[in-house]
């Protein structure tokens, strides 16, 4: 298959255009409902309960922004670690998939061995996380 | 540089390349609103059909205009901004949730000569943009300053990032087979390679590496888009509506649009990565270069994608909801090691035999 027919800027410009159009559309849609509300409601309905968060009609006792389970933070941290490793796999996969690594003197066997080592280390890390009980969500 | 056809159908080759791109952008940006409105209608009709009800059938033929009625209602509903919210973030969040959905649309390869941007880093770019939607959800949940919304937002982000890992690892199998991150290149590889000298090497047919990757991918896609059976972020019976409980009017509509657009993009990605995209047993090569070929390819692509969208709806109304700890256990303890092992198997197959598909 041929190389990319157009130089990189030309490929990214349409994408940038779409981002701008989508952003503009979002802005227009958001302002439409605000404007329509302003125009159609002669008298803004106001009452104390209207300004409180929705809790199925129960009186609000506490603020919503209290502490919650640390598990969510840990999941986020683990995600960053593992996701970076997944991203490292992509260039490897491209080179391996092209199968032309022989040019560089390294055979596919060597590349496969590299994957084995990489995944082995990744697996050890995962095993540590599991054994530490980080992924247990049941209440103690 | 090699000369290459300007990548527009021959009939339209008199158009300058930039104009064709503009037309592509115009056409592609029509798709999400039209499809989302059809999908909302289809969702209600199919759910009614599965539950032996009639469903919306009053507005227009078969109730097809129901979504138009919904839209009118969205526009004219009062835009309530509750007093406790953080106003700036509260208004920005719906836009942040919707824009990635629309932008990722423009990265999908509908047909060989009908693409907005044919990037060599296509798959990475698509993942990068689509995962930005988590900001909209999380910021919306937090800015609402409501307990349901906050819990929904936190749950959603933890769930989405967890399954992004397995999504990425499953997609890496396809990269491994095709040796490219360019989505169009992946489709070309799948349609041109043969398994056992006969079957096109659609990744799903490359057993076991590709097939297992597909199963992991489709399950992770359900979790990514917060669809049942993984819809803990907006579980009605627990959180009322989750992260968008404090939203109304058009702001709510934007969340809705973003969610459905993400669902369509995920279906399209499954089509592209695992089901051979625009190819269908040689039909995609009929009338090479003409506008008919482009239409046929786009038709094939959409037929496959619509099938996946039907599966999304079908599963939503058939399976019960998971519990959150079950969801996390499935993602981290089952799918993560499984997809790592699968990657190894796929890599082994790639070099040492793939049912006769050339390496």
Structure description:
The complex is a heterodimer of chains A (140) and B (359). Chain A is mainly α and 140 residues long. Chain A contains 3 helices and no strands. The N and C termini of chain A lie far apart (57 Å). In chain B, helix 3 packs antiparallel against helix 4, helix 5 (133-143) packs antiparallel against helix 6 (147-178) and helix 8 packs antiparallel against helix 12 (324-351). A two-stranded antiparallel ribbon of chain B has the order 1-2. Helix content of chain B is 63%, strand content 1%. Residues 1-6 of chain B have low confidence and may be disordered. At the A-B interface, helix 1, helix 2 and helix 3 of A face helix 1, helix 2, helix 3, helix 6 and helix 10 of B.
Question: What's this, in brief?
Answer:
The complex is a heterodimer of chains A (140) and B (359). In chain A, 61% of the residues lie in helices and 0% in strands. Chain A is mainly α and 140 residues long.
The strand line-up of the biggest sheet of chain B is: 1-2
Largest chain-chain contact? A-B, 75 and 93 residues
**Class computed from helices, strands and strand pairing of chain A:** mainly alpha
First-residue to last-residue Cα separation of chain A: 57 Å
Low-confidence sequence ranges of chain B:
1-6
Largest sheet composition of chain A: none
Rg result of chain A: 27 Å
Shape of chain B: globular
Mean pLDDT of chain B: 84
User: Would you identify the regions of chain A where 5 or more consecutive residues have pLDDT less than 50?
Assistant: none
**DSSP strand content of chain B:** under 5%
Instruction: Kindly provide the radius of gyration of chain B, computed on alpha-carbon positions and rounded to a whole number of angstroms.
Output: 21 Å
Taken in chain order, the helices and strands of chain A follow as HHH
Major beta sheet of chain B, specifics?
2 strands, antiparallel
Order of helices and strands of chain B: HHHHHHHEEHHHHH
